[in-house]
Model the fold of this input.
Amino acid sequence: MNKQITFRHMDHSPVIEEHIHAQLEKINRILEHEREPIYLHIVLDAERVHHHHIVEAGLKSPHYDLHVKRENPDMYVAIDEVLHVLYKNLQNAKREFVEKEHAGHRTLKRKEEE
Done:
Protein backbone atom coordinates (compact mmCIF):
# COMPACT_ATOMS: atom_id res chain seq x y z
CA MET A 1 0.00 0.00 0.00
CA ASN A 2 1.27 3.44 -0.91
CA LYS A 3 0.79 5.73 2.11
CA GLN A 4 1.26 9.45 2.14
CA ILE A 5 0.81 11.74 5.14
CA THR A 6 0.69 15.48 4.51
CA PHE A 7 1.13 18.03 7.28
CA ARG A 8 -0.42 21.43 6.48
CA HIS A 9 0.16 24.54 8.56
CA MET A 10 2.18 22.48 11.03
CA ASP A 11 5.58 20.89 11.38
CA HIS A 12 6.11 17.22 10.65
CA SER A 13 5.59 15.16 13.81
CA PRO A 14 7.05 11.65 14.07
CA VAL A 15 4.79 11.03 17.08
CA ILE A 16 1.62 11.82 15.12
CA GLU A 17 2.88 9.77 12.18
CA GLU A 18 3.55 6.83 14.50
CA HIS A 19 0.03 7.19 15.96
CA ILE A 20 -1.44 7.10 12.45
CA HIS A 21 0.53 3.98 11.50
CA ALA A 22 -0.66 2.24 14.69
CA GLN A 23 -4.28 3.14 13.89
CA LEU A 24 -3.89 1.86 10.31
CA GLU A 25 -3.22 -1.73 11.38
CA LYS A 26 -6.92 -2.68 11.16
CA ILE A 27 -7.22 -1.14 7.72
CA ASN A 28 -4.06 -2.93 6.58
CA ARG A 29 -5.55 -6.28 7.63
CA ILE A 30 -8.65 -5.70 5.52
CA LEU A 31 -6.58 -4.73 2.49
CA GLU A 32 -3.81 -7.33 2.72
CA HIS A 33 -5.34 -9.58 0.03
CA GLU A 34 -6.55 -6.77 -2.24
CA ARG A 35 -5.13 -6.12 -5.66
CA GLU A 36 -2.56 -3.37 -5.98
CA PRO A 37 -2.24 -0.45 -6.42
CA ILE A 38 -3.72 0.86 -3.19
CA TYR A 39 -3.22 4.49 -2.30
CA LEU A 40 -3.90 6.04 1.10
CA HIS A 41 -3.47 9.77 1.53
CA ILE A 42 -3.97 11.42 4.90
CA VAL A 43 -3.96 15.20 5.24
CA LEU A 44 -3.52 16.83 8.65
CA ASP A 45 -4.41 20.52 8.69
CA ALA A 46 -3.86 22.61 11.82
CA GLU A 47 -6.25 25.53 11.43
CA ARG A 48 -4.94 28.57 13.24
CA VAL A 49 -8.07 30.71 12.90
CA HIS A 50 -10.73 28.37 14.31
CA HIS A 51 -8.43 26.28 16.49
CA HIS A 52 -9.95 23.21 14.91
CA HIS A 53 -7.84 20.61 13.25
CA ILE A 54 -9.02 19.04 10.03
CA VAL A 55 -8.06 15.50 9.13
CA GLU A 56 -8.90 13.97 5.76
CA ALA A 57 -8.24 10.45 4.54
CA GLY A 58 -8.65 9.17 1.03
CA LEU A 59 -8.34 5.52 0.05
CA LYS A 60 -8.19 4.51 -3.60
CA SER A 61 -7.83 0.98 -4.92
CA PRO A 62 -9.15 -1.02 -7.88
CA HIS A 63 -12.32 -1.82 -5.87
CA TYR A 64 -12.71 1.10 -3.46
CA ASP A 65 -12.73 4.88 -3.55
CA LEU A 66 -13.39 6.27 -0.07
CA HIS A 67 -12.98 9.71 1.45
CA VAL A 68 -13.52 10.82 5.06
CA LYS A 69 -13.09 14.25 6.66
CA ARG A 70 -13.44 15.29 10.30
CA GLU A 71 -12.81 18.41 12.39
CA ASN A 72 -11.94 18.51 16.06
CA PRO A 73 -10.02 20.77 18.46
CA ASP A 74 -7.83 17.76 19.35
CA MET A 75 -5.70 16.45 16.47
CA TYR A 76 -5.49 12.93 17.91
CA VAL A 77 -9.27 12.70 18.31
CA ALA A 78 -9.75 13.88 14.73
CA ILE A 79 -7.25 11.27 13.49
CA ASP A 80 -8.95 8.51 15.46
CA GLU A 81 -12.41 9.54 14.19
CA VAL A 82 -11.30 9.68 10.55
CA LEU A 83 -9.55 6.33 10.64
CA HIS A 84 -12.42 4.68 12.53
CA VAL A 85 -14.97 5.92 9.98
CA LEU A 86 -12.66 4.92 7.13
CA TYR A 87 -12.35 1.44 8.64
CA LYS A 88 -16.14 1.08 8.99
CA ASN A 89 -16.74 2.39 5.45
CA LEU A 90 -14.12 0.00 4.11
CA GLN A 91 -15.73 -2.93 5.93
CA ASN A 92 -19.13 -2.06 4.43
CA ALA A 93 -17.70 -1.53 0.94
CA LYS A 94 -15.82 -4.83 1.09
CA ARG A 95 -18.94 -6.68 2.31
CA GLU A 96 -20.97 -5.20 -0.56
CA PHE A 97 -18.25 -6.06 -3.06
CA VAL A 98 -17.99 -9.67 -1.85
CA GLU A 99 -21.79 -10.10 -1.88
CA LYS A 100 -21.93 -8.68 -5.40
CA GLU A 101 -19.14 -11.03 -6.55
CA HIS A 102 -20.85 -14.06 -5.00
CA ALA A 103 -24.19 -13.07 -6.52
CA GLY A 104 -22.50 -12.84 -9.94
CA HIS A 105 -20.96 -16.30 -9.55
CA ARG A 106 -24.31 -17.78 -8.53
CA THR A 107 -25.93 -16.26 -11.62
CA LEU A 108 -23.19 -17.69 -13.85
CA LYS A 109 -23.59 -21.16 -12.33
CA ARG A 110 -27.35 -21.09 -12.93
CA LYS A 111 -26.85 -20.13 -16.56
CA GLU A 112 -24.30 -22.92 -17.02
CA GLU A 113 -26.70 -25.48 -15.54
CA GLU A 114 -29.48 -24.54 -17.98
Observations:
- Residues 2-113 form a domain with the Double Stranded RNA Binding Domain fold (CATH 3.30.160.100).
- The chain is about 50% helix and 25% strand.
- The mean pLDDT is 89.
- The CA atoms of residues 52 and 73 lie 4 Å apart.
